[in-house]
Amino acid sequence: MISRIIALVLIVLLSPLFITISLLIFIFDGSPIIYIQKNYGLNNKIFNLYKFRTMKHNTPELPTEEFSNASSYISKLGKILRKFSFDELPQFFNILKGDMHFIGPRPCMVKNEEVVKEMRELKGIHTIKPGITGLAQVNGRDSNSYDRKVELDYEYMKNANFIMDMKIVLKTFVVILFPRNIKH
């Protein structure tokens, strides 16, 4: 319940940013403004994950690391949004709906991340709610292999506590303010 209240407060406080980003996407690349992606959530229940659209129209639905030339599919504005993780802001609505937490393993895409889904199932990671940020995002981000991401998700699942969550939140701000390990 606390996560939902915090998400609602952040949505209200950041509404000028939400509106500005929405207008910029619409002006420079048209609609839709929000990209809806099918992802696995708690106990592999499928949910709609919301993001600001950063990819050009008619881009195949794949994780960007699977493109041979991902940057050619990302809009100019999208590159900026991704660099500072602004594309993730609509996920506050996912928290409000109860699909996600602020902290946890990043949810897997339904369409093509079966490998990660299966690796997580073996370790029981699918039994916790996914998050906007987590250990993998603050410890290597895009440079992590699937194995490493699952290892960090498992570490979080086994050791999650208030202190760990606060460290992840602080590291998330550092990662956003000083972006690195972002491939696309």
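That was protein one. Protein two is written in the same sequence-then-structure order:
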Amino acid sequence: MNLLTALMIFAATGVAVENPVDYKTAYKKAQQGDKPLLILITAEWCPPCQVMKSTTIPKLMQRQAFKEFHYATVDLDREEKLARQLIGNRGVPQLIMYEKRDGEWVRRYLKGIQTPETVEAFVAQAKSLRTASATDAVGQ
């Protein structure tokens, strides 16, 4: 499927096409703001990566599951040094979340192909932790 066809399908189904920003921009915004950083690392040669990019992520975008995150993608083939730095010796696809807890950045990740529901549960956990922290801060 080419890009024009994909855009036409998204437009016809009412799905908002949200392109993730590049890693550098998302990282900078996360450092300046209060939203966690969410990064999908993929590769062109990786079939599970392509499923994540073409099926799972668009469904999540339609549900606005990432609206409380700075979201970026990194392609292992195009940005190998950065991707390797982020994933270490683990494989792709990998969804990494950096979130601030008690003033420090904490890293969590999901490796391998994931369903939209699994990813939603993963990001919901971060949302609930932020809500609990905000409630604790107000109560003190």
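Confidence is low (pLDDT under 50) at residues 2-18, 134-140. Keep this in mind for the problem set.
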